[in-house]
Amino acid sequence: MPESGNFYPPWNKDEAGEPAEQSPGRADLDALDNKKTMNDITINAERLWSELMETGEFGKQPNGGLTRRALSDPDQRARRWLMEKMEQVGMEVRVDNAMNVIGTLKSASPRTERKGALGSHMDTVPNGGMFDGILGVLAALECARTFREQEIHLPWDLEVISFCDEEAGYNAGTIGSRAMMGKLQEGEIYLSKKKGGETFADNLVRLGRDPEKIYSAKRDPSELAFFIELHIEQGKVLEVARKQIGVVTAIVGIYRYVVTVEGEPAHAGTTPMNLRRDALIEAAPMFTLLPKWVVQRNPDMVGTIGMVTLEPGAANVVPGECSFVVELRSQIPEDMQSVRDHLFEYCDQRDYWRVDTIYEKDSVPLSENMIETISSAAEHNGFEWMRMPSGAGHDAQTLAPSVDTGMIFVPCRNGVSHSPLEWIEPRNAAEGCQALFDTVRKLAQRDTP
Fold this sequence. Notes:
Elements: H1 45-55, H2 73-89, E1 92-95, E2 101-105, E3 115-121, H3 134-149, E4 157-163, H4 175-180, H5 200-206, E5 224-232, H6 237-241, E6 245-251, E7 253-262, E8 266-267, H7 279-283, H8 285-297, E9 302-311, E10 317-318, E11 321-330, H9 333-348, E12 353-361, E13 364-365, H10 368-380, E14 385-390, H11 395-399, E15 405-410, H12 426-446
Parallel strand pairs: 3-4, 3-5, 5-15, 6-14
Antiparallel strand pairs: 1-2, 2-4, 6-13, 6-15, 7-11, 7-12, 8-10, 9-11
């Protein structure tokens, strides 16, 4: 595992390979010389890496993975840590009724009431990795800190947002960002992935919050001038292509459903095979049918059954109920709709089968303006970059239809994510953060007369 010692980003060295001096003094954007390159100010790469290692202790498991479910005790500790760091930067900090943490770097000379926004999420999947989501939050914090330290006057307030429950810890996921954009479905916070399990609403109550107030977290999208999310790729496209930066062009659509098949629970030792109504056996054909439907429709789309629950779930009891989650992903809504129709028709034709929609999120293109600005920032730093779609869902997907939204990817080792083996190098974190910082600077220059 790489050490976090005294390393410097490769674009911040002089010709002899020694660390170059940081550009001194004030850097008012309205006085910047356009002939300067964008890398005259660099983020503190060592500080960013140190904080990534520090937050990697919140929810750490014996095998090195992280379990930091939204609103859990490890998540609450990480959130308090973040809020303290924001306050140290001099940011105004608040937690909205969807439990999003929002730190605001106030502009000394704002030219608009609209705000820029950066961020991602801090929660993880069970036994997940230490960079998914949190990299985008800490890089956003590092950008805000660098703007403050360098006394750069932004033309708008800059928000750093840690969205709550991106990872679907309870049900549908992206709860915080969807609450902010007014896209929560009625009653969904009272549902849970697991029958009888905790709900998001249960945990709001545990933390002294009123679940019904979550809808007041909604904001007018016109409040935000832009939103940018830095994230690990969670695939190996950048690594194979040997690119440092991925400029995301679109985020894949995700349709998710829960199928419930009812059988009859019975004693596993005394019930002959021909007298059983085994819910698992009834459900089993779908496990091979779904991938066939997907491939027949479009080999580029994907379909997954990644969660199967049996009731009562005992070795000596014939399953009386089998429920499983079907997930479809594609950038073409018609493809997902076609497979969905197959699924609903199959279930409707069978007794004791039921299918319920968890959510349907169509793919969204990201702002061409943001794509060009991020690409330009990458080029100014001499980074190798490429345009690419995202095959994973993100909070940016929620904001993109109504806010000028961009996403930056950095490579992760072997493309592994949602795993204790998830890893990036210090250089990956630094390059992504620098691209984020300079993207914001370019947007600030654009908005500064």
